């Protein structure tokens, strides 16, 4: 892994995108969005994939208020999929809270800085972000957990991350 507990969270990524309220992709300024914030990053291999859709993200969506009660400003969901797909996925998951942001990392620039890309070419998916979660407080990484293989949802669950806050 490239990052670990105690490292500074990499905010110098200019190739992230988010869906605007109108549905159009727009650049996401990671540095501005995270400045002086306490936030959680959840990186997943792909929108609409069974483990991400059925196991991983629903718990974060259900427990968003639990994170907020622990001082977390927002949860940042990062994956390679484009902003149009992420908007549809967010709607499908019922993630209506403005405390959950779905961010596209199309070139895996943030994922590479976190040390998480994995080769899922054998599944027809190409190179993707692996499954991981971080707690970041004022740009410092205070917790980092990764499910190295990408398919399993074990150590990066919402419950396990909440227990570390």
Automatic annotation (TrEMBL):
Query: What CDD domains does the record point to?
Result: PRX5_like (cd03013)
GO terms assigned for molecular function: thioredoxin peroxidase activity
EC? 1.11.1.15
The entry assigns this protein to a family as follows: Belongs to the peroxiredoxin family. Prx5 subfamily.
| Function text | Thiol-specific peroxidase that catalyzes the reduction of hydrogen peroxide and organic hydroperoxides to water and alcohols, respectively. Plays a role in cell protection against oxidative stress by detoxifying peroxides.
Domain Thioredoxin: residue ranges: 3-165
PROSITE patterns given in the database record: THIOREDOXIN_2 (PS51352)
Query: What protein name applies here?
Result: Peroxiredoxin-B
Originating organism = Ogataea parapolymorpha (strain ATCC 26012 / BCRC 20466 / JCM 22074 / NRRL Y-7560 / DL-1)
A Pfam family this chain is assigned to: Redoxin
The stretch of residues making up the signal peptide is none
